[in-house]
């Protein structure tokens, strides 16, 4: 095992520990209506994250199917949490002010610096930045040491199963690419785009990126499939600048990110954190911007790519 892999496994074990604590929290809640199934979900997830690399692939597959079945059957429900009183929360917010955003800024800045200057890889840079941001948060808030465990567990429980959607959808994108979905899409699109029609090709590519991102919930997963199926044969092979097509194609997919609950880390998790009455309120507020930006992408790609 290389150094970078060992560091990554350490971070995966930390994540597994959080999942395990969420499961224990559900198990200890005697009033929980779905205590056993919720506990099983989090325990299985912790199991795959901690020892996944050492398991036969079929066992990992069975675990994924099990957590998917529990989620689909609505058997995973948040357990009771010790939530601070509104007055206490308001007091802490007034005391900290805008300093509360410093850990979040540290998370981003340290991740970029670690990925650029440290030899640990981009994925490990995220874990390193999270550790630094946690230390900064402690220094700013002067919170008790147990706060990271208690509030981190409560946060993960509040987010629920949607928290692992990005990872599953990214894997699904790789599966689609390996299965040749892009080739199938290319055959279907060839009947729609007239020969030599650059504008229609650009529109189909950008809209296809957005739609597939809505389905997949992940722009990166959609990019590989749609670019192979539409971008390369109908744009790049017709003389379009591949740099422009790639850059604007990926961000066109992000227009779809604004419109889908499948992009749980962007659209559902914030709603859960803010405890909004309508869990789709963020998507609804972003819809107009998404459609306008998608139109802008089509225009820019048509002008700049050729």
From TrEMBL:
Entry keyword annotation includes Zinc-finger: no
Transmembrane segments: 6-24, 36-52, 98-118, 124-141, 162-186, 198-215, 220-237, 243-266, 287-305
Keyword line: Membrane, Transmembrane, Transmembrane helix
Coiled-coil residue windows: none
Pfam families associated with the record: DUF979
UniProt-listed InterPro entries: DUF979
Protein name from the UniProt record: DUF979 domain-containing protein
Organism: bioreactor metagenome
């Amino acid at each position: 095992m290389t150094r970078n892999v060992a560091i990554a496994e350490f971070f995966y074990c930390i994540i597994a520990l959080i999942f395990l604590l969420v499961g224990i929290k559900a198990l200890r809640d005697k009033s929980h209506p779905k205590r056993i199934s919720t506990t099983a979900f989090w325990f299985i997830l912790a199991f795959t994250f901690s020892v996944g690399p050492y398991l036969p692939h079929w066992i990992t597959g069975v675990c994924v199917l099990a957590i998917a079945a529990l989620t689909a059957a609505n058997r995973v429900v948040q357990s009771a949490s010790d939530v601070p009183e509104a007055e206490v929360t308001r007091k802490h917010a007034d005391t900290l002010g805008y300093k509360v955003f410093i850990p979040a800024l540290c998370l981003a800045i340290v991740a970029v610096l670690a990925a650029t200057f440290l030899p640990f890889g981009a994925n490990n840079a995220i874990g390193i930045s999270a550790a630094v941001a946690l230390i900064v948060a402690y220094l700013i808030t002067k919170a008790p040491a147990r706060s990271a465990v208690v509030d981190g567990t409560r946060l993960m429980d509040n987010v629920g199963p949607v928290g692992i959607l990005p990872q599953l959808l990214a894997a699904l994108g790789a599966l689609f690419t390996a299965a040749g979905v892009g080739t199938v899409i290319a055959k279907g699109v060839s009947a729609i785009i007239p020969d030599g029609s650059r504008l229609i090709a650009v529109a189909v590519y950008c809209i296809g990126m957005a739609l597939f991102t809505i389905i997949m919930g992940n722009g990166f997963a959609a990019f590989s499939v749609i670019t192979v199926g539409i971008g390369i044969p109908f744009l790049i092979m017709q003389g379009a600048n591949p740099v422009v097509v790639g850059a604007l194609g990926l961000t066109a997919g992000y227009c779809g990110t604004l419109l889908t609950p499948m992009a749980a880390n962007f659209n559902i998790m914030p709603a859960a954190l803010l405890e909004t009455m309508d869990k789709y309120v963020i998507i609804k507020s972003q819809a107009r911007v998404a459609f306008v930006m998608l139109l802008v992408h089509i225009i820019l790609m048509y002008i700049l790519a050729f």
